[in-house]
Amino acid sequence: MKILIADDDRMSRQLLMKTLEREGYEVIAVDNGLLALQQLSLPDGPRLALLDWMMPGLDGAGVCSEVRKQHDRPYIHIVLVTSKREKQDIVAGLEAGADDYLTKPWDPAELTARLRVGQRILQLEDRLVEARETMRFKATHDPLTSLLNRGVIVDLLARELTRTRREDGCTVTMLGDIDHFKSVNDGYGHVVGDEVLREVARRLLSSVRSYDFVGRYGGEEFLIVLNNCSSAQADVRAEEVRNGIAKHPVQTSRGPLPITMSLGVFASKDWNLDQVEETLAKVDSALYRAKADGRNCVRRAAPNTSQDPLRQLIK
Amino acid sequence: MTQPVDRSSHGAVNLTELLTRVENDHELLDELIEIFKEEFPRILLSLQKSIACGNMKDVEAASHAMKGMLSGLSVTRAASIASRLEQLARDGKTSELTEVLALLEREVNDLLPELDTYTAEKKP
Q1: Are A172 and A276 part of one and the same domain?
Q2: Fewest CB within a 10 Å sphere: which of A34, A78, A256, B21?
Q3: Residue B8: what pLDDT?
Q4: What is the pLDDT of residues B42-56, one digit of tens each?
Q5: Residue A109: domain span
Q6: Number of domains into which chain A is organized
Q7: B35 and A107 in contact by Cβ < 8 A?
Q8: Do A105 and B74 touch (CB under 8 A)?
Q9: Is B3 helix (H, G, I), strand (E, B) or coil?
């Protein structure tokens, strides 16, 4: 494990280095507070630090304060090493963000024992962060396909629609539905049906840009949100997605199955809309037309067309 | 690393304590002594100069550095005198500085020869 030593006293540095190297640490030693802060701010910087209190540039307590402002970094366990023995000094060091302190001259056994405590705390923190991330993923993703779940993809669509309206841009929304999926489940069983869903999800993800969003909207329905995609490009992109599904059969445990997808497409710029409910209604209508027109095709929700069922209803 | 040395402290350096701190690593102890011999005269000179100039901030910094070095090498009595100098500088008690500095100088007078003797005794 990496550990940072910051001490302007050469003898202390050397003694700490040797003691910690003997314990198996990968030691980085610096002689002032500014260099210490620089090291602790690196993305793969040390997560254990021994800081001398009095140092030129920035003292140990100052380094602690600065490090604690970096909320987006993994936690760093900081031990202040000081010859200050007064209670108020120790309190000030801990208040500045130090986790522990050692007084000079330190006992090597106590030093290494305290660092092991620090390591245990860091390991505990890592496990908590990992558990939190797992829970976050489970709360936001579909367990079968690992795509974004319905709630999250709809929220993202709402956010993108508002943003592009504000910036006078365009968000393209696609709603895709696997054709005749019921016959896959009925004919081959749900295990194969799940295999198809997983493979379709994988192909959808690989046919969009890394910053687009793909989510599972319903059973065999998928919602795709393309940021900053022009209205002119919408059909081309949708055709790429459709072709990505239809081009090759899906390999399943029961052999290859030809799978196709029908898609409805909606470009926010065409309608000047920023309401998610209306957007979903329009794209759903377009998907319905794609199904009605024979499936495995793309239909655009275009304004001023008699094919829009909502518009027909209003008439 | 060699076997622990059973040797009591006679002079300024508490050798027993020091060997415990370096975990009986004589090679490391030699390195520390070398660093001390390089750094000590420079910090002592800085301390003397800052006391002569009456610059309390520099006196505090130099005596703090001196205290760290001396306690690092288990030169306990001298480290405590350096600590007293640091406190005097912090409190702005300039009148006592020269007297305490003289005390420190007397205490560390035999330190470098003592370290040389230790190093020479170890050689085969």
Answers
A1: yes
A2: A256
A3: 41
A4: 999 999 999 999 899
A5: 2-139
A6: 2
A7: no
A8: yes
A9: coil
Spell out which residues of chain A touch residue B67, defining contact as CB-CB under 8 Å: 83
> Looking at beta carbons, which residues of chain B come within 8 Å of A12?
68, 72
Helix, strand or coil, per DSSP, at residue A112: helix
CA distance A176 to A296: 10
Same domain, A121 and A83: yes
Contact B112, B40 (CB under 8 A): yes
A94 is a domain residue: yes
Domain contains A263? yes
Catalytic residue list contains A199? no
Chosen domain end from A139, A174, A202: A139
**Within this chain, do residues A227 and A275 fall inside the same structural domain, yes or no?**
yes
What CATH number is attached to the domain comprising A289? 3.30.70.270
> What residue ranges define each of the domains in chain B, with the CATH number in brackets?
15-117 (1.20.120)
Residues A92 and A197 in one domain: no
Q: What is the distance in angstroms between the CA of the first residue and the CA of the last residue of chain B? A: 16
Closest partner CB to A105 (pick from B23, B36, B72)? B72
Q: Are residues A198 and A287 in the same domain?
A: yes
Candidate list A66, A160, A199, A220, residue with the active-site label? A220
Give me the sheet containing A77-82, strands edge to edge: A26-30, A2-6, A48-52, A77-82, A100-103
Give contacts of A 254-293 with B, CB under 8 A.
none
A108 lies within 8 A of chain B by CB: yes
Based on the fold, state whether residues A47 and A74 are members of the same structural domain: yes
Q: Give yes or no: residues A7 and A131 share one domain.
A: yes
Q: What is the per-residue burial (b if ≥16 Cβ within 10 Å, else e) of B96-106?
A: ebeebbeebee
**Cβ within 8 Å, pair B23-A10:** no
* Interchain pair B69, A22: CB under 8 A: no
pLDDT tens per residue across span B38-96: 999 999 999 999 999 989 999 999 999 999 889 888 898 999 999 999 999 999 988 89
d(CA A314, CA A283): 17
Q: What is the mean pLDDT of chain A?
A: 91
Residue A83: the pLDDT is 74
Write out pLDDT tens, residues A154-171. Answer: 999 999 999 998 998 999
